[in-house]
Write a structure and sequence with these properties.
Layout (H helix, E strand, L loop, with lengths): L2 E9 L3 H11 L3 E8 L6 E7 L4 E7 L5 H9 L2 E9 L2 H10 L4 E8 L4 E6 L9 E6 L3
Parallel strand pairs: 1-4, 5-8
Antiparallel strand pairs: 1-5, 2-3, 3-4, 6-7, 7-8
Length: 137
């Protein structure tokens, strides 16, 4: 199984306040901006592409969203690291056979056809890691 860095998710209080750094200092370009109001997600997202990486700025929609809870507990900053895999189902099966635990309630397909799931941080020594693949059109 190939694991390729797909993006880094960064929790922010305000996308509008955070964007200038990523656009003007890191010379990024705003690829997309959308809102996911799915229960248990509830986040505004800005997708910024730099020369070689993708960054997702994550702003909570409300005080009960997972990103709001993250910021309250840990502060702003890196929320997760996402790795693209060849096939999400196969990656989950292989990792599970090696004792990796997943946050099953996070498994979903987002608005852009990215299938994803988060690995339970107890399996990664505390880092929230997303595995994802993309539906073929």
């Amino acid at each position: 199984m190939n694991y390729v860095l797909d993006h880094v998710g960064i929790a922010v209080r305000s996308i509008d306040d955070a964007l200038p750094f990523y656009l003007n200092i890191l010379n990024g370009s705003l690829e997309d901006r959308y809102t996911s109001d799915t229960p248990g997600v509830e986040v505004h997202v800005a997708v910024v592409r730099t020369a070689d990486k993708v960054i997702e700025l994550l702003e909570p929609i409300n005080k009960d969203s997972p990103i709001a809870r993250f910021i309250k507990q840990r502060g702003k900053g890196v929320h997760h690291i996402a790795y693209r895999v060849d096939n999400l189902d196969t990656a989950i099966l292989e990792a599970s056979k090696n004792g990796i635990r997943f946050l099953e309630d996070t498994r979903r397909t987002n608005l852009h056809g990215r299938r994803l799931i988060y690995i339970n941080p107890v399996s990664t020594d505390g880092t929230l890691i997303e595995l994802c693949d993309y539906l073929k059109s």
